[in-house]
Amino acid sequence: MQTFLEQLAHHHTSKHLTEINDFCFVFPSRRAGLFFSRYLSQQISRPVWAPKILTINEFFSEIDPTPVADSITLLFKLHLSYQKVMETDISIDEFIPIGEMLLGDFNDIDKYLAKPAQLFSNLAAIKALDDDFSHLSPEQILAIQSFWSSFNPEKISEQQAYFLAQWEKMYDLYNCFRDDLKSGNEAYEGMVFRSVAENAVKEKSISIPYKKVVFAGFNALNECEKEVFHILQNQKKAQFYWDYPEWIFHNTNDKYAVQHEAARFLQSNLLNYPSPDDWQPPFSEKMADITIASATNELEQTRLANYYLKSMAENRPDPEKTALVLADEQQLLPVLHAIPEEFSAINITIGYSLKNTPAYALVENLLAMQKTTRKTKEGKTWFYHRDVLALLRHQYMHIITDGKNLELINKLIKANQLFIVDEQLNVDSVISSIFKKTDTTEELTKYLNDILVKIYKDLEKGSNNQVEMEFIYHLYTVIKKLSDILAALPQKPAPETWQSLFKKIASQEMVPFKGEPLQGLQVMGILETRAIDFENLVIIGLNEGVFPKTSPPNTSIPFNLRKGHGLPTIENQDSIFAYYFYRLIHRAKNIKLIHTTTRSVTEEGEMSRFLQQLYYEYGGSVTMESIHQKVTVPVHPVITASKTEDVMEILHQWTESGKEALSPSALSSYLECPLRFYYRYVAKIKEPDDISEDLDPRVFGNLFHQMVEHLYKPFVGKEVTADMIKELRSNKGFIRDTMDSIFVQNIPFIRQKSNIFTDLQGKNSLIYEILYKYIIRFLECEQQDAPFQLLALEERVFGKLKISDQLTINIGGTIDRTDEKDGTLRITDYKTGKAGKTIQSIDKLFDENHHSDNKAIFQTLLYSLIKSQTIGHQRIVPGVISVKDLYKEYDNQLYLKNRQNKEVITLELVKDEYIEHLNTILAELFNPAIPFRQTSNEKSCAYCTFKENCSK
């Protein structure tokens, strides 16, 4: 069986070969014309002049050659007309979304030959009705006023009056805009269509240089196309060839059945513009078997496509007669990876979206940086750290900076500055040329193009960079195109407007893939398939909401008004895509249709209604397949790290012969998860550093510790009385000055060079005040606890634990505070986080399921043990001051509580049992036969830095 285009070519070569050069063939798309040209050449054995092959837009432009302006030029010219008619000084930034909507509406009005005066009059009336409250009863008015106090149905606000005036001037705007374009010998597409149609009706003829115009493969016609078709038909210069599956007209015997949506436009087309009598449409003799397959997700969808294409390849089909069609064109990249190697040649017709390329991401980073960059009166330029780091981390930056970007990233993170001055970025000329502020659109355009040219030249030096170079080149042309358009316009937009326009153009730009257009497996979007037939079809992404799309048109004209004036609505969109779908599959022999069952970023989790219709209405065989990948759920073994000789050598640093001391916090890490201890202290794996804008809990804890140290430093070695603390607490200015100096030391972005950024920003200002209140409350509690002898602050201590004759471990750390009261030595730790103060038994301190809640007790006991070795004091009491509990009853003691009683924990009370458990854990840690294992307590994994390394 021949395809539609093959039969069309055969029909004309057999009947009109000698005059075919006088024919013009008009198709819905260029691709259809390309396939037709190929079929034509295959059926002609001798040289002849080729006919003219055009799209419908090109055909109208031949009749009326008025240049169609690009969308950006149209937006700016409509903006000028809008300002003139509406008597407003609205900026181009504010106008762009309005302008895009109006351009679409004007285009539809002209293509569908609606009467603009009547339509805009109706539109103004509808908007007035929206603000008309005369239908409300007094009771309804009172009900509305009960929650809307300013509501007054008697009075239309000034804003409402202005709003209505805008709608009443829409017809004037429409005429003004058209006149302004005519004066510049320009037009928008609908304007050209209307001009051709109205002139044709007026003259009752159309002057064309062709003997015949063949319109083939069309479906939904706008009113301008209908008028032109009708006039040419009357002139006997037009022929019409329609392509459709016959069964959509005969799918039921029920006279009350609703018309098939795919045939919505075809019935009138066939009646009004019949094909020649000697033309017989190439209907399918046998309806193909169809497979509808469901995939669990988008990735599984591409795997299915690979499977079906492989099975098709086994029958050695003509690759040009096999198509992989994407209902969702965003899936192009994963689909390309899914094409089996049996298809050596691939032709991609949909292109790749420029906005998804690394080159576009780079320009977005550059534009984002320009938005947040500021200049000072002193001539300094300040950059926001997030934009700087995002830019430095881009893959192209490593190429053009010869790796210096990584050094600069490390340097900036170490400085931890929220805002970065230009002096810090003057590493070399290349980096300096990137980190600079542009003030005008001309500067911005040159800035971006210079960077792109630099990247292109550096990519050119390498190998296998052709695709990346193509991305850079296309982006360069987009920027150049926008620059040329704006240079010819009277408005001089701000850089912010330039960015909006750039994103609009770039989002519509596709990077084409070069190659023989008719060779190999065809990878296409739905629109590219118009009038083209394939024997083997795999269509993916057939989900409701994706195909057909459910988004309504962007318009200012309500649905009922559009429908009443004959303008296209979402119903038209559904019918058009239904036609595309059913026409595409009706001659294929092998059809695989795939949808996903789970909702994703791009697809709904429901099959397209077209697939549902096929299942219930299709005359051939429809097989439903649900392909499930066999999944086995293995029992995850506990992840371990062996204690090799290298690991034991690292552990050796904490033994008696080593130079390092094992800290209480390191031992806590081991008790919570031995594997985490391995990652952090043995493998030395660190969290990725970044610049911190907010004061995280760790920084907050450091600030509290330093505040107490600075306030209490003058009291070290003295007896601290209640009066001394009261006097300190009352000196609020001194406390705030101390806080200011400590904040500056810890958070560089608070006060930088030239004193540009001197204030806390965002929620950090709240944290400052919270910390201040905690310090005041802490001193109040300390006043109640006085007097005491303050012995030391932030004291570094060191001790040894003999585990066996062969093993002695160095332990040590920093004690927050040591004081003495009533003959008792107190070892106190400050905790700004969670800190349990009561335990049932000592063994809970060494249980991985309970240690996290009790680590404060464990650590202060260990500090007490170390201190007892150095001073030999017999009565030592560990204590914890929990900052979070300062506003509760003040108590810094720790307790051992069982059913019988509750005792204050002293080192003497628990020392023997504590040491016994401690020795057991340390012996395990230094035993080469016991690997570092993953914890069984999954709660410990919740916020672990290394959880991605584990199987839990």
From TrEMBL:
Residues 662-950 form the PD-(D/E)XK endonuclease-like domain. InterPro entries: P-loop_NTPase, PDDEXK-like_dom_sf, PDDEXK_AddAB-type, Restrct_endonuc-II-like. Pfam families: PDDEXK_1 (PF12705). It comes from the Bacteria. This is PD-(D/E)XK nuclease superfamily protein. The lineage of its organism: Bacteria, Pseudomonadati, Bacteroidota, Bacteroidia, Marinilabiliales.
